[in-house]
Amino acid sequence: MEDHANKYQVLLQKLATQSQVDKLQALLQREDAETLVKMDKFIQDAELKHNRSIRRLELQRTDLTSVLARYQTALSLVSDSHNVARQVHSEISRADRERKLVDATLQFVLQVRSLKTHISVAHEAFNKNDYCTVARNIQLIRQLDPNIMNSQFAKRVVPSSELPEDPSVLVNQWCEKCTHVFKTNFLDAASRQNVDQLTLSFQMFPLIGQEFLGLDLYSKYVCDIVASQSRKIMTGENKRPGVFAQALLHLCKIVSTVINNHSQIIATCYGLHHMVHVMEKVQKEVDLQAGLVLDVFAEVRKLQRVVYAVNEWNLAPKEQQQQHQQQQQQHQQQHRDESNEQAIIEPITVAELSSLLMEFSQILQNWSMYTLFFSVRWYEFRNETMSPLQPPSPISSGQLTTKLSNDSFLSNFQILIAHYLQRSFRKSLSLEELPSLDNLVSTRPFKHTDLSTYPISSVLEDLSVLIKKTLILAVNTGQPELLSNFLDQLARFYQNEFLVKFMQNKFKELHPKLASTLFLKKVDNQPNSVGTANEKQSATKLSQLGFNFRGAAANALTNIQSNLQAVVSDNESVMFLRQYLIYVNTLYLNVRFMHRLLTVEILEENPNLLRDNFPFGEDPISLSKKVGACEELLIRQNNKLQRWSVKILFESVFLSKIRTLIHPIFNNGNEDNYISNADNFENLSNVNDFVSKWKSAMVPFQNIFCAEAWSELLSLIIDTIVRLLEQRIWTLRVNELGATKLDRELSLLITTVCSTNYTLREKFTKLTQLVLVLGLDDDDFNIDSGDIKEEIEGGMNWIVSPQERIKTRGLKVDKRH
Fold first, then answer.
1. Where are the domains of the chain?
2. CATH class of the domain comprising 663-809
3. Which of 381, 662, 682, 786 might form a disulfide with 275, Cβ 3.0–4.6 angstroms?
4. Residue limits of the COG4 transport protein middle alpha-helical bundle domain (predicted)?
């Protein structure tokens, strides 16, 4: 329509003549007629569709009316069915209630009849003194409904002229009589050790409702067994070493056997959950008897007296301790055949202390194993899962657990093991042996196959054996606080006694005797057979560690010193240098020893060791962390002294040597000019002379040192070499051929000094880059900046700065621009 209006609007604007108006009028009339025809047709079609829709709706209304009629009919039928169903359900419910009442009446009558039968049988058995039959019938009566016995019907039906009493009164009388009889029989059988009669009587108590009486009697019986066995053990020989640990172990075995074997009958007759009641009562007796073992152990072994003597010894000055120890050794020599009590001299000897600690540790170990067994069985009988495992209250709050802490048993063990560590270490110092180095003092490289070929002080070997022994003693106790405290003691002992008082003092003592003129050479003229024998003896000692350590030296230090008096003073200085090297080696190898003793043997090779010995709570995890922290602390303190000892050795012995060896290097006839030509280009005599002197002077040290010590020393040497050669390079004037020769000499020097140690080779990186810049062509440099071109600079990681590269290029005398 809008299109037609626009068209007409255009035509109106173009009208100019009457004929155009007439034509437009005719057009409008024609289109009006056509529009009217279309509208009439549209209206007719719409009315037709509307009528059809009305007829269709009428038909649907008719159908819906029919459906509603049928629905009303069905609803009426459902309502009738519902009423019928309700009537049927009511009848069924009434019949079911009647059936239940009939069944209940029947069960009641049957149980009354059973009650009367059991009472009759029990009465006959009671008259015949057959109390077992009486108990079984009482059990059957107790299994009946409790209301039956007290019902009015039962009170009228069950009594008879022979048994006029009410059923409940009669059963109570029989229970009291049976209880008395079974208790008497149980005690009599226990006194006569009649196991069959004991078991029979024990099985009867649950039948008459006396479970706890039976369990109490049984618990007392077991406690009496434990007490009697304990008395037998303690009345035996108590002087023999280890007897108290064996006594406690035997006591724990008895209890564990009883718990394992007797749990079956208790589970059958009483119920397995009742085992915890027995275990709780038995544990009180075990605490008592185990505490008695500990008290007798402390008395016989004079534990308090020993601890007091140890404390007094620790407070005494060191000189008095040494004097007292000498007097004690003399006294033992004079009274070797006297009794133990007469031979005791305070403080206790190392051998006696070792025996005491061994037994003490075994006692605690046996108790720890028993607590683990008790805890596992306790939760099994309670049908509980405890993760992580925790000690039950009879253990955690038990008398013995409290006694170990309150009576200072654990603290006394800590004091004794710390004293044993101190005394044994001091004894090893007095017996120190140092190895001979003659087989290593050679210009030929010596290949070490294992740790046993490295020369170390016998003190380290003794210390390793000692630490392993004390660690075993602490771990075996199964007491987490003991191991934790011992690791703290070990860290303090290691730092104070070994690192400071022994190693550091040795270095300070030998430091003034070192000189830059000293070289290693063979001075030991002792026969080889002696050294071999000592090596075998030391290897046997260290076999306790599981290590393949080389034995101690051929001679004791005192013998070495006496032999030194017969040689010239130069040899004496060399011997001091040897000793210093041995102590440096000892310090470095000690790191491996400690790592093996702590991490490898405790955590890696025996991953379940801490879990097995310390099974409760988070103890294994915390102790594992404590072991790792202890090792880290020891190694950290050791490393400080390592670096200090090597630095002292370097400054005292090697610094001057290195300056002398390096002086001819980068010298081509003139100290300031390194101008080479065809005649002297192949002449590498200076560096070859350096290689020869280096091997002669350094290979013996490399043969002696372990890899870590040699690497530390070599690092200091290389730092000095690099510093000296860099200073030398800045003073040279170099031509192109000289730069090439300089590179050859530097490469040979690096190979000689570093060999295949690429970490140390990196220290020469700046020198090699300086020499590389000297060898570059003029075309490799930028004329404007004077530095190397960008494509060359981007090809490697430069340590030399651009200013240094420009300065280096200025050293060349034959550059073109």
1. 2-156, 210-406, 433-439+450-652, 663-809
2. mainly alpha
3. 381
4. 171-508
